[in-house]
Design a protein that fits this description.
With 380 residues, this protein is of the alpha/beta class. Helices cover 39% and strands 17% of the residues. The protein folds into two domains: 193 residues, Glycogen Phosphorylase B (Rossmann fold, 3-Layer(aba) Sandwich); 157 residues, Glycogen Phosphorylase B (Rossmann fold). It is globular, with a radius of gyration of 21 Å.
Length: 380
């Protein structure tokens, strides 16, 4: 079947920088069984096209982006018809996908992958922040033939808006890009190695993370913290770290490619999530796949895995976050138990699982998709 996939970006020509790794894993698997055309709204400023992982990338670029994306999908459909339009994220991507599918008389599927169902007014975050955003999401949720989301908490948010969605986690490529590794004991030498992966921004709430670390530093547990992610806050988080006396315990590493991040993740003892909202997040799956458990706020996979495969605390509660970190670092048996349970889930719900879930959905929405072999057939 010929598929159209609408994305905001994450599909750079390099396949390494400015990419969304879980999206690339999905693209590679879908392109192996379908003719896949990816319409990227904002990958590059100017329009362009290239091949990536077996798919054809159509970059729309700046200026009347949604209208030109619609036109690009319709033009490609005239060359040979699409069987289904899928969007990764709701918002602008979802609106383009639903509109195009409606115009072409074919099904649409929307993966609600971010903050589309929320409204966090104090930090100006969420798809429901303005009346225009709320109207747009209402149109998308009502117009999509099917909705998916990565975790149970995201499904609950959508249910509260009257929308039924299917759980489809965005799994990790546990064979090539991110090889799975079972949990290993921490050992007794050296400080605990803590890791946080995420852009420095308000929804990731690094101040809660730093305040938890400052409290942890008052105890006997030695630790070192690596923070990986692009800084969008102009050094504010680094300044807070210095004010809290954490400068010698934290290294801000900025953006890292997956190749650069993998050994750092493998060396970590605990991943920390401090976000106010997450649909997934993929970093929890990446950590779990290499045997690293997560302690964090009750969002996304952290919430749905707790208490068997993660430790979760209330959003914004740095004191509880510090206590949970202290607990897991003081109890190696607990850390390993969490890591093994998380590893089992991440390896089972990997990138092949994600593609298989979507293949099943496409088969239900578009009968022609049933003629394609399932994405997981080679492995399962």
């Amino acid at each position: 079947m010929k598929l159209a996939l609408v994305v905001p970006g994450g599909v750079d020509r390099s396949g390494e920088y400015r990419v969304i790794p879980a999206l690339l894993a999905l693209i590679e698997r879908l392109a192996g069984h379908h003719e896949l055309h990816v319409f990227a709204l904002h990958q590059e400023p100017a329009p362009g096209a290239w091949n990536l992982l077996g798919a054809r990338i159509h970059n729309i670029g700046r200026g009347a982006t949604r209208v030109r994306a619609l036109r690009a999908i319709l033009r490609e459909h005239r060359a040979s018809p699409f069987g289904l339009v899928q969007s990764f994220f709701s918002g602008a991507c979802g609106l383009v996908a639903v509109s195009a599918a409606r115009m072409l008389g074919i099904p649409s599927a929307v993966h609600v992958a971010g903050g589309e169902p929320v409204r966090l007014a104090d930090i100006r975050f969420g798809g429901r922040l303005t009346w225009r955003g709320r109207l747009q999401e209402r149109v998308i949720l009502a117009g999509a033939s099917a909705l998916t989301a990565a975790s149970a908490p995201q499904l609950e948010l959508l249910s509260g808006l009257g929308a039924a969605a299917r759980r489809v986690p965005l799994g990790v490529d546990c064979v090539q890009a991110w090889p799975a590794r079972a949990p290993v004991p921490r050992g007794t030498d050296g400080p605990a190695r803590l890791l946080h992966v995420g852009s420095l921004n308000r929804v990731k709430d690094q101040p809660t993370l730093l305040r938890a670390l400052a409290q942890l530093a008052q105890g006997p547990q030695a630790f070192h913290m690596d923070i990986v992610g692009e800084d969008t806050l102009g050094g504010a988080i680094q300044r807070l770290a210095r004010e809290l006396g954490l400068a010698d315990r934290i290294r801000f590493r900025g953006f890292m490619t997956q190749r650069e991040l993998l050994p750092l993740m493998q060396a970590a003892h605990v991943l920390i999530v401090s976000s106010r909202h997450e649909a997934g997040p993929v970093a929890v799956l990446e950590a779990a796949a290499v045997g690293v458990p997560t302690v964090g706020t009750a969002v996304g996979h952290v919430a749905e895995w707790a208490p068997q495969a993660a430790l979760a605390v209330p959003v914004g509660d740095w004191q509880s976050l510090a206590a949970a970190l202290c607990r897991v670092l003081a109890d190696e048996a607990l850390r390993l138990r969490l890591a093994r349970a998380a590893w089992t889930r991440a390896v089972w719900e990997d990138a092949d699982y994600t593609a298989g879930c979507l293949e099943t959905l496409y088969g239900e929405l578009a009968p022609a998709a049933r003629r394609a072999p399932p994405a997981t057939a080679a492995r399962r």
